[in-house]
Fold this protein.
Amino acid sequence: MTNTALITGASRGLGLALARSLAEAGWHLVLTARGAADLEKAAAELGATAIPGDVTDPGHVARLSGAVPELDLLVNNASGLGVTPLPPLAGYPLEPFRELLETNVTAPLALIQATLPALRARRGAIVNITSDAANGAYEGWGGYGATKAALEQLSNVLAAEEPDVAVWWADPGEMNTRMLADAVGEQEAAAATDPAKVAATLHDLVRSRPASGRVSLQ
């Protein structure tokens, strides 16, 4: 039986690295991201199904869930950083903050709700990618961190409510990604961990299937 994974934010960074790792292990992959060109390139490389779109769009969520009637793994990796340069909370614009909540909290929940029947049927697993900004008081990271804290509590309750589905909220640590570069600059981001190394740890997590909970990938 071939395992199937749905990965959001799969055109670059950790999402793409994990897709490569799973593809090498023979998984069938359904990949999504907003950048259609990069996504199609990744899908062609991996023999995966590409469904480009925005996870905040209910129609796109419906298309994704329709593409995975059988599902073993959902990875909510797509995420927004918010306003840059990162502002203090005293001056954080509220409308961009609402949009960030939509991307980082509401959209993952919507996709979970849409795919839970398939995940329950296969006793599957959910990985919600979080951040140490969810529980660390880092200046400038309040907006982003608040959304990740909400995602962590959502995951925590989901794990209690869905005992037949493994739920992990995974902190990847600092990785050399475009998002980190946008936040802290190219030089500091270049010194961070390669996403491929983090993806290997995440793949090991999926294989070993520990109890639901918060995990650190570095």
Q: What stands out?
A: The first strand starts at residue 4 and ends at 8.
